[in-house]
Specification:
The chain contains 5 helices and 2 strands, in the order αβααβαα. By secondary structure, it is mostly helical. It has a single domain, classed as Arc Repressor Mutant, subunit A (Orthogonal Bundle), CATH 1.10.10. It has a two-stranded antiparallel sheet with strand order 1-2.
Length: 86
């Protein structure tokens, strides 16, 4: 099992099963993402889906959620530009 996980992490192009395991999601949800064209994928023969590991990593890290520290810093910067105090 460790060998299989290591192999998935080092491959550049993943199958649907490998991509689902790599991302920690169910294959059915991955199919839903591909059907709605929400995730980058490739179909060289028109049937089987393949995924580039680097593109999956980029997709997984889109839309970050700001931390409390980020929001506080942003609020302080805004107040400083408007001459307000918290």
């Amino acid at each position: 099992m460790v060998v299989a996980q290591t192999m998935v992490c080092t491959k550049e192009v993943l199958t649907t099963d490998e991509a689902a395991k790599y991302m920690g999601i169910k294959v059915s949800y991955l199919y839903k993402l591909t059907a709605s064209k929400a995730i980058p994928h490739y179909k060289p023969n028109g049937k089987n889906c393949f995924f580039k590991r680097t593109e999956l990593e980029q997709w997984l890290t889109t839309n970050p959620v700001a931390t409390v520290a980020d929001l506080t810093a942003s609020a302080q910067a805004y107040c400083m530009t408007k001459k307000l105090t918290l």
